[in-house]
Design brief:
This protein is α/β, with parallel strands linked by helices and about 325 residues long. Helices cover about 45% and strands about 20% of the residues. It has 13 helices and nine strands. The protein starts with 6 loop residues before the first strand and ends in a 5-residue tail after the last helix.
């Protein structure tokens, strides 16, 4: 009987042909080798599946299903995962070589912990560094203090105990775009949580992602999400409303505008490079000329770094 791997790397994939080869290569190149890579092909219509099958590595397990969304793909992957530890990862990101080793050793040496995340290097579509992201909290105590205000984890950078997540019911399918955040609130009492203060992945922002700046989602989306997080659950009716908002915005020009606006913000508040910020904000304005916040952001790009940092510290949601 084949021995079970120590880690299941769980990767959902939907139309990821542009980046998935690099993502898979970064997993196969890990210094910790005792893992399986479970890729759930969630109804891709491009060459995603062909690229996956071009890799000749027995650790890769491919599961194909009709397109059902991220939460459903993750829950499918959990059903097939053979390891006790699940390392989440996305098809457009890049793992640093020691990512699995460091997180595995942390959980092995600290059995009271059920989840460990990390900081991340945020990168542009082309792979260039956007900024170094530091989690809002690292210790268990800090995480609990901030859990109901901001999501404390970069989802594709976490490793968790499969048993704890399965006991919580897996990923909530109706929590569209925040299925991970709602899950963390559900497992927070089952064990301790931690973030390693070191970037272990490169997290790619790109205009094709389902994740965009929530300011672009609108107040109703943020209200529904906030109420669900505080309550610890989301109803099917709320899920339908969330999905309707997302589908209305699931058009390329909205995603591209949101992508460039977010890059502009980060090149000001997190990695002060005003010229690069203006390049991205100009693109956001050309795509959405009636969004006043883009003009404000463009104006701010001419202000000194110390003022930008002061403004960001005073009102982190402003930028």
């Amino acid at each position: 009987m084949e021995a079970k791997p120590q880690i299941t790397v769980l990767m959902p994939a939907y139309n990821a042909e542009k980046y998935i080869a690099e993502a898979i290569s970064s997993v196969l190149g890990q210094t910790f080798a005792d893992f399986e890579l479970v890729i759930v092909n969630d109804g891709s219509t491009d060459d995603t599946l062909t690229i996956i099958r071009s890799f000749d590595d027995k650790r890769i397990v491919v599961i194909s299903q009709p397109n059902q969304g991220v939460a459903a793909a993750l829950n499918t992957g959990l059903q097939h995962a053979r390891a006790q530890y699940i390392a989440r990862f996305d098809a457009d990101d890049i793992c640093h070589p020691q990512r699995l080793k460091k997180q595995y050793h942390f959980l092995q040496n600290n059995p009271e912990y059920i989840l460990v995340g990390s900081d991340a290097d945020y990168i542009l579509e082309n792979g260039d560094l956007l900024f170094h992201f530091k989690c809002i909290a690292h210790t268990h105590e800090e995480i609990l203090q901030k859990l109901y205000f901001y999501c404390p984890f970069v989802h594709p950078a976490v490793m968790y105990k499969k048993e704890s997540v399965c006991r919580a019911g897996g990923y909530p399918a109706d929590a569209h775009n925040f299925e991970d955040y709602l899950l963390w609130t559900a497992i927070a009492r089952a064990g301790k949580l931690y973030n390693i203060a070191e970037p272990l992945i490169k997290y790619r922002l790109n205009a094709t992602s389902v994740t965009i700046d929530e300011k672009w989602r609108g107040r109703e989306f943020r209200r529904l999400k906030r109420e669900a997080i505080l309550r610890g659950s989301v109803t099917a009716e709320e899920g339908e409303k969330l999905l309707a908002i997302i589908k209305d915005q699931d058009v390329q020009h909205i995603k591209e505008g949101a992508y460039h606006a977010l890059c502009g913000k980060k090149f000001l508040a997190n990695n002060y490079q005003p010229e690069k910020a203006r390049q991205h904000v100009k693109k956001a304005i050309s795509i959405h000329p009636f969004r006043l916040d883009n003009y404000l952001l463009y104006t701010l790009s001419y202000l000194p770094e110390r003022f930008i940092l002061w403004l960001h510290q005073k009102s982190p949601n402003r930028l």
